[in-house]
Structure formats: structure tokens, C-alpha cells
């Protein structure tokens, strides 16, 4: 059954990779009325911080704070507590930080919820292997043996054991992750490139329609929308393609 416009838009996370809040607000204005998720990454957060998250929430957006925490458990616990207080809907950390780090993040979430019972529990997901990583990078540069998919599945298993809600991976790995962890275990997939667009620094890519066809829960799209000559048209075309699957 094909998705409605709203259902497809709800599965689209737009990566607001901008150097300042003004430029990000410009894109939000352009996309007004499209009920997509907004993703705030390190570039925008380091520049405009919690205030910009509040702007997005006040405009009714679901917000994924993509800061990819990776530190000792105590530090990540504190970071998770602070992030939860911002009222974001989803945030993430690197599965490579290990089981204790991932459980510490959940303790941080719980502590924030106990501080303020009006807060909603955010979804917590783990980055497996970055979508810019290819087989060569993994084995020769980073020195991790085995295939990219094996590594992704090992991190997904660890994240699930630690009680997380899902993982960030390439759409190419969605079926294997869902097969191993179950369909309720969420996949959030960057590395999305509409047919004919530049892959740039992304290595493990699929088109929006192919990614939805693999059964992913959310696709993350940055430059194919933000760098398009008509970002609204680009977003609408991506949503239409998602609907066809
Ligand atoms: O493995 C990962 C994890 C996060 N990202 C983020 O997604 C967007 C993708 O942007 P594009 O411009 O569509 O390439 C970006 O914010 C990354 O930080 C990822 O690409 N891969």
C-alpha cells in the first residue's frame, strides 16, 4: 500500500547542515507545511545551540539531535541528561562507545525525566558504521576486519542488548538489521541519493524509493535538498518517490 504525502513526509529527516541559524531558518521557511523531521547536526548545534532546537520545537517539528556522542560513560550520561532537557524527540551516540556507555546514556535520560516529569522520553539510537565508510576504510584505515555489514550487525546487536531504540546505518543494511533485530528495531538511514545526484563523501547509498523499499523507518537527506536550486521542489520529489514504494 502506498504512503500518503503526510506518511512519507513523516519519514523524511531533513539535515539542517548550515553554519548559522539564519540560513537554517531560511530553509525551514521554504519547506513550510511539509511535516518532515528536522535533523540538527554538529555544525548548526555548535553555532546556534539549544536556542535553535527550541525554535524548531516551537514550530511543531520533531527534532533529531545528531551529535553522535562518544565518550566515557559518565560524560555521556551527563550529556544525555542535558540533551533530554532540550525536549528533542531523538538523539544518538556511537555504538563503538560500548555497552556501558550506551546504558549510561539511558541513565542520563531517566535522570532528566525524574528532574522534570513534563519531558517526553526521547528515542536513543546508535551509529553503527558511518555511511561514508567503505570496505577499504574499514579494513585498511580503521583496522576492523570483516565486512561492513558484519560490523554494522555486530554494533546493532550490541545497541539492542543495551536497550536502545534503533541504529543509524546505510539503507543497504536495513534488511539484515531488521532480520537480526526484528522489525520494531528502528533504522535511520542517511546515505540517500536521488538517481543522478552526486554521492559526494557518501559511500553506501540508495535512492529515497529504494531505501523505503528496503523497509527503513526514516531516511536522512541533506545536500540533495539543501543544495538544490529549488529545495522545496527537491523535497517534494523525494516525498513523491517515497510514496511510490
Ligand atoms: O552514518 C552517517 C551518520 C550521519 N550522517 C548525517 O546525515 C546527513 C547526510 O547528509 P547528506 O548531505 O545527505 O549527505 C549529514 O548530516 C550527516 O552528518 C551521515 O551522512 N551518515
Automatic annotation (TrEMBL):
Active-site residues, Swiss-Prot/TrEMBL: 66 (for ompdecase activity), 68 (proton donor), 68 (for ompdecase activity), 71 (for ompdecase activity)
Cross-referenced SMART domains: OMPdecase
Highest rank taxon of the organism: Bacteria
GO biological-process terms attached to the record: 'de novo' pyrimidine nucleobase biosynthetic process; 'de novo' UMP biosynthetic process
Any GO molecular function: orotidine-5'-phosphate decarboxylase activity
Cited InterPro entries: Aldolase_TIM, OMPdecase, OMPdecase_AS, OMPdecase_bac, OMPdeCOase_dom, RibuloseP-bd_barrel
Catalytic activity: orotidine 5'-phosphate + H(+) = UMP + CO2
Gene3D superfamilies recorded: Aldolase class I
UniProt keyword Endoplasmic reticulum, yes or no: no
Described purpose of this protein according to its UniProt entry: Catalyzes the decarboxylation of orotidine 5'-monophosphate (OMP) to uridine 5'-monophosphate (UMP).
Family, as annotated: Belongs to the OMP decarboxylase family. Type 1 subfamily.
Entry protein name: Orotidine 5'-phosphate decarboxylase
Species whose genome carries this gene: Paenibacillus faecis
Gene giving rise to this polypeptide: pyrF
Amino acid at each position: 500500500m502506498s504512503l500518503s504525502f503526510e506518511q512519507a513526509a513523516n519519514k523524511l529527516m531533513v539535515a539542517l547542515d548550515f553554519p548559522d541559524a539564519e540560513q537554517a531558518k531560511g530553509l525551514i521557511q521554504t519547506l513550510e507545511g511539509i511535516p518532515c523531521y528536522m535533523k540538527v547536526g554538529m555544525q548548526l548545534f555548535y553555532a546556534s545551540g539549544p536556542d535553535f532546537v527550541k525554535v524548531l520545537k516551537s514550530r511543531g517539528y520533531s527534532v533529531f539531535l545528531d551529535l553522535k556522542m562518544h565518550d566515557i560513560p559518565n560524560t555521556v550520561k551527563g550529556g544525555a541528561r542535558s540533551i533530554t532537557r532540550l525536549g528533542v524527540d531523538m538523539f544518538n551516540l556511537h555504538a563503538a562507545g560500548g555497552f556501558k556507555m550506551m546504558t549510561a546514556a539511558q541513565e542520563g535520560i531517566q535522570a532528566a525525566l525524574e528532574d522534570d516529569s513534563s519531558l517526553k522520553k526521547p528515542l536513543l539510537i546508535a551509529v553503527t558504521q558511518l555511511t561514508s565508510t567503505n570496505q577499504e576504510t574499514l579494513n585498511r584505515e580503521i583496522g576492523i576486519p570483516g565486512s561492513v555489514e558484519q560490523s554494522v550487525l555486530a554494533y546493532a546487536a550490541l545497541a539492542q542488548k543495551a536497550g536502545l531504540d534503533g541504529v543509524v546505518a546505510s539503507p543497504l543494511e536495513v534488511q539484515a538489521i531488521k532480520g537480526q533485530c526484528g522489525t520494531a528495531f528502528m533504522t535511520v538511514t542517511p546515505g540517500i541519493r536521488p538517481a543522478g545526484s552526486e554521492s559526494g563523501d557518501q559511500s553506501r547509498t540508495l535512492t529515497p524509493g529504494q531505501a523505503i523499499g528496503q523497509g527503513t523507518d526514516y531516511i536522512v537527506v541533506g545536500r540533495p535538498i539543501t543544495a538544490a536550486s529549488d529545495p522545496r521542489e527537491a523535497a517534494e520529489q523525494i516525498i513523491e518517490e517515497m510514496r511510490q514504494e
